[in-house]
Specification:
Length: 144
């Protein structure tokens, strides 16, 4: 009798289990943690300044947006580097939260300028330009 009950219970137990479940299938839906830190440049724009007349625009630097994935993380973080007008040295750094930093002469984090949105206002304060004057971030014109 016990054997008969066991034989009848096996199909019931087998029907309750998911025989087509493979744990590897779910890994396709989720990004794996990074094994090394990688940064990719997303875009590069020109920082221009003018006092009163927009025809007198002058390049004061470049703004490069980077997307970074840190070791062990699954998400990307954005940051921005501020370069000099010749794009030779990095002069500043902006975090994803909007914190502005200046680099020292050796290329390391120097002083913290403040926390602003990544807008012309934060760049004006970074460069020490009065708020009445104009700073803009523009696409790079290849024909200039």
């Amino acid at each position: 009798m016990k054997r008969l009950a066991l034989i009848l219970a096996l199909p019931v137990l087998a029907s309750c289990s998911d025989q087509n479940y493979y744990a590897e299938e779910f890994s396709l839906y989720y990004d794996r943690p990074a094994t090394e830190t990688k940064s990719v440049r997303i875009e590069k724009k020109e920082i221009v300044y003018w006092a009163k007349n927009p025809r007198e625009k002058k390049r004061i630097g470049f703004l490069t947006q980077m997307e970074t994935k840190v070791v062990g993380s699954r998400t990307y973080r954005n940051c921005w580097y501020i370069w000099d007008p010749l794009e030779k040295t990095r002069v500043g750094f902006i975090t994803d939260e909007g914190e502005f930093y200046r680099f020292d002469a050796y290329g390391r984090f120097g002083e913290r300028v403040g926390e602003y949105k990544v807008t012309p206002t934060g760049l004006k304060i970074f460069y020490g330009i009065p708020l009445e004057e104009h700073v803009e971030v523009e696409d790079i014109d290849p024909y200039k």
